[in-house]
Amino acid sequence: MNFKKILKKIFLIFLFLVLAFGCYLFIGSAPRAKEITWGVNFSQKHAKNLGLDWKETFTALLDDLGARNFKIAVHWDNLEPKDNEFYFDDLDWQINEAEKRNANVFLVIGMKTTRWPECHLPEWTQNLTQEQQQEKILRMIKEIVLRYKNSKAIWAWQIENEPFFPFGICPWVDKNFLKKEISLVKSLDARPIIEADSGEGSFWIDAAKFGDIPSTTMYEKVWFRQISHYVRYPFPPVFYWRKAKLINFLFNKKVICGELQAEPFGPKLIYDISLEEQAKTMNLEQFKKNIDFASKTGLDTFYLWGSEWWYWMKVKNNQPEIWQEAKKLF
Predict the structure, then answer these.
(1) CA-CA distance, 120 to 235, in Å (whole number)?
(2) Interval 132-145: pLDDT, tens
């Protein structure tokens, strides 16, 4: 058999495997979860940037919306505005309010903790070396875990947000440092570690390797800056189910969705685009579609991304429709 024939056979085998794997990911349907847990993301900074009273917003999520599962972002610049001077009052308030209502919370801690610019470094860290910044991050994480490890509301810790996905304005990416962060938290507390990754641009392998609970994002319609156009992702619900099954098979870990799109994703931040532009990627119809889509993936835990925006639409724009629709979930 000559060399060209061998290459041809290898190519055909490879092509067959690619097609078979593509069929595995894209064809079929997932079994619906018997019971779905719905939660919300919350960022104090995002609520304030929308011009909202963030305490009023958080209280409304608890008492009016009825949410009892929260993913709360801890932004470093809010927590430690000056070197080694921690300001816990606002986070204490959120945790205390959650405890009063028997709500369940996991905190996103570290340098990269959701919301643009993703990495929320205090100004005083700007001239530090990478090694010095990392020392300060470890100190900050230790302070947080020790402060809240006895809270009945906290059920897990998420260390960094999508640390494997190159999104946001961040000074560096360091998987070895992520291991140090996780080791530190595990030495301080026994609660599970969540690691998040992109739902559409990853197979969640690193998230499963590093974390006890792999977490994915789930987006349907977004502004794609590479082509300056709105794009609807082509992935069917079974795409997420099959990847989750693969993770379960390889790592014996259950995948959750820590970020289900429920607010606009436009060419600029929400604060800088019109309501008409926002509606191109999120409105009541799209919200319903995203909830239905998520329900068909077979996953059973979803934290919706955009609860602050629903409240902003309700109280600042007299458009309570999405808020009222979301109430049905809780």
Answers:
(1) 31
(2) 999 999 999 999 99
Query: What is the identity of the amino acid at 107?
Result: L
Helices (H), 27-120: 44-49, 54-60, 76-79, 89-100
Q: How far apart are CA 123 and CA 118, in angstroms?
A: 15
Determine if the peptide bond prior to 81 is cis (ω within 30°): no
Domain count, the chain: 1
Provide the pLDDT for residue 1.
58
Side-chain-side CA neighbours of 239 within 13 Å: the count stands at 19
- The enclosing H or E element of 124 equals none
We report the CATH number of the domain holding residue 231 as 3.20.20.80
Q: What's the chain's length in residues?
A: 330
The answer to the question of residue 130 being in a domain is yes
Q: Which of 269, 268, 263 is nearest to 282 (CA)?
A: 263
Asked if residue 106 lies in contact with residue 71, where contact means CB atoms within 8 angstroms, the answer is yes
Residue numbers of the domain that contains 147: 35-327
pLDDT tens figures, 73-131: 999 999 999 999 999 999 999 999 999 999 999 999 999 999 999 999 999 999 999 99
Rounded to whole angstroms, the Cα distance separating 91 from 106 reads 12
- 17: pLDDT strictly greater than 80: no
Domain-located, residue 92: yes
Decide if 21 is inside a domain: no
Is residue 305 one of the residues assigned to a domain?
yes
**Longest Cα separation, the chain:** 75
Say yes or no to pLDDT of 16 above 60: no
Outline where 149-229 has alpha helix (H): 175-188, 205-210
pTM metric for this prediction: 0.94
Q: DSSP assignment, residue 299?
A: -
